[in-house]
Amino acid sequence: MATKDLLSPLPGTFYRKPSPDAPVYKSEGDTVKKGEIIGLIEVMKSFHEVHADADGTITAFHADNEDAVMAGQPLATLAI
Amino acid sequence: MAIKVHSPGLSTTVQDLGRPGYYHIGIPLSGAMDREALRSANLLVGNDENAAGLEVVFMGPELEFTAPATVAVTGGEIPPKLNGEPRDTWTSFVVKAGDVLSFDFLKAGARAYIAVSGGIDVPVVLGSRSTYTLGALGGHQGRKLAAGDELPVGSASKSGAAGRKLPVLLRRMPGSPATLRMLPGLYWHRITEEAGKHFLADTWKVAPEADRIGYRFRGGQKLAFVDRKPPFGAGSDPSNIVDACYPYGSIQVPGGTEPIVLHRDAVSGGGYFMVGTVISADMDLIGQLQPHMPAKFVAVDMTAALKARKDQDALAASVRAALA
């Protein structure tokens, strides 16, 4: 099966859930549709949604909630 | 000639070298966060060095040109692509009508500058084309770019040739950790001697909130204050002062926890104490710091600060000479 890394578009802080006490957007093993939100990047006082860029199944997350991330860094791997 | 904005990037704004002269009435300097990079981009395409270009932060826009022009991208490494083909940064290249400029992921630094021959021809407001978004002043309608915008481009007085390149030695970028020279002063006396030592010894990290208004840092130890009875007009927190002017580059530390270096779009006054100012020669470097990057403050005296300013002026002169 082909895989695809989902890359962070921005440097900043990665969040896997919409608010501290909410469940994560997606867990490993979940299926996603293209355009679905898998997390948020916080930078310059605003939050930017990270969308899946293909349909697939998330096989791994490479960044934890509140991790510092760089632009272009893989956030998750999708099996497509 | 115009530039059509297909997608705007994160926060792309029209900036020139700034709008000095109004800070005392609350209108900040604005202009490029990395002025030397904008100056270089302009000179590469044959513009006056104060022409307006685009400041791109962290994520590039997608732009279409309606007429031929010469373009250069300088500053942080956000690799440009013309019709999908990679183009070098710090190097002028020619675009034709209908060509599309897009960008790859940010590789280094934080802000790239796009200069187009003729300059971005938005109206001059208080002597500058720079955008001050908080005040909805200048630039393109006083705001960051949005998809569907069309930016007017001036007619180029002299056309810059393609393939002009700025030598690597004349491109100034911060190291890691970034070293920010600062002149202790202003309200430095409000913190203890021990706290002053920690402030300079600690490695700070750029907070994700850092923007054109102020660059916030965290990760160092909380500053301890000298005891006092708050003067009339000052707040009760030990980091409060009677409202005062905030210089460009001043380092305020609200609550003693997270230093904020006021930058191009800063407010001009308020009630937080400041430990000093980052020297003018190092302000460009701050504009190239990504979130979470390490930085250290290094104390210098006025003689060293003025020498650094002369060195920065000499760098600008070398850039002018190299691109004359």
Structure description:
The complex is a heterodimer of chains A (80) and B (324). Chain A is mainly β and 80 residues long. Chain A contains no helices and eight strands. The mean pLDDT of chain A is 95. Chain B has 324 residues and is an alpha+beta fold. Chain B has two domains: 2-169, no CATH class; 178-315, Cyclophilin, CATH 2.40.100.10. Chain B is built from four helices and 20 strands. The two termini of chain B are 25 Å apart. Chains A and B meet through loops of A and loops of B.
- Name the quaternary structure: heterodimer
Q: What's the average pLDDT of chain B?
A: 96
Greatest interface and its residue counts? A-B, 15 and 16 residues
Number of domains of chain B: 2
Structural class of chain A: mainly beta
State the order of secondary-structure elements of chain A, H for helix, E for strand: EEEEEEEE
User: CATH homologous superfamily of chain A - what is it?
Assistant: RNA polymerase II/Efflux pump adaptor protein, barrel-sandwich hybrid domain
Helical content of chain A stands at under 10%
Largest sheet of chain A: 4 strands, antiparallel
- What does the radius of gyration of chain B come to? 20 Å
Give the low-pLDDT segments of chain A. Answer: none
Class from helix and strand fractions of chain B: alpha+beta
Rg estimate of chain A, integer Å: 12 Å
CATH architecture of chain A: Beta Barrel
Question: What's the number of helices of chain B?
Answer: 4
Shape of chain B: elongated
Strand order of the largest sheet of chain A: 1-8-6-3
Whole-Å distance between the termini of chain A?
7 Å
Number of strands of chain A: 8
On the 0 to 100 scale, the average pLDDT of chain A is 95
Q: Total number of helical segments of chain A? A: 0
Short structural description:
Chain A has 80 residues and is mostly beta strands. Chain A has no helices and 8 strands.
